[in-house]
Specification:
191 residues; mainly alpha; 10 helices
Length: 191
């Protein structure tokens, strides 16, 4: 029944499933990219007042994500991004990136700075150091943060529920809740 989408709540199931995979994948890619670039620039390039960036990023965790739902909803409505996956991706990346920066910065401190200095002596640019030294040595942290971002994006409900209201733009977590609208919830199809 689920594979053929023959139940009336499962009409767009495969589109919703593909949308959920796309949302999770893009969240992971953007979180890893922004977090690793920020931690590299602050930790390795020693940007002046770089500690302000990391502290400001961590300060965002003082405010719970649920408190920001209404302002974020109004902002996305103002810019015409309702029922748009990029609105949800932007919110999830904004919530996952501070954690990514913190983890990458802590893990990056365990990588000897002498590797960067040796590469600079050999004529490597900061871009080459980032791609050839920093990223390969950061693989364990990238996997950990990528898993965190993937699970955050896959299990997120509030922002998906607020920003994706039409059946054609819903993701799997929001679509599953639609099953509870009837008197008899089809638990076997939900599972």
């Amino acid at each position: 029944v689920v594979i053929t989408q023959s139940y009336w709540y499962l009409t767009y199931f495969w589109e919703q499933f593909a949308r959920s995979i796309y949302l999770a994948g893009m969240t992971v890619i953007f979180t890893l990219t922004i977090g690793s670039l920020a931690s590299f620039s602050v930790g390795r390039l020693r940007i002046r007042h770089g500690w302000l960036v990391t502290n400001a990023a961590l300060l965002t965790y003082v405010i719970p994500a649920s408190f920001l739902a209404i302002p974020f909803y109004r902002l996305m409505a103002k810019y015409g991004m309702m029922n748009n996956l990029w609105a949800v991706i932007a919110s999830l990346v904004a919530f996952a990136t501070p954690y990514a920066i913190f983890i990458f910065q802590q893990y990056g401190r365990s990588i000897p700075i002498e590797l960067d200095e040796a590469a600079r002596i050999d004529g490597a640019s900061p871009v080459q150091i980032y791609f050839r030294i920093y990223l390969p040595l950061m693989v364990p942290a990238l996997v950990a943060v990528g898993t965190f971002a993937l699970l955050l994006a896959w299990n997120e409900f509030l922002y998906q529920f607020l920003l994706l209201s039409s059946k054609r733009s819903m993701t799997v977590p929001v679509a599953i809740v639609q099953f509870l609208n009837s008197d008899e919830a089809p638990w076997n199809y939900m599972m």
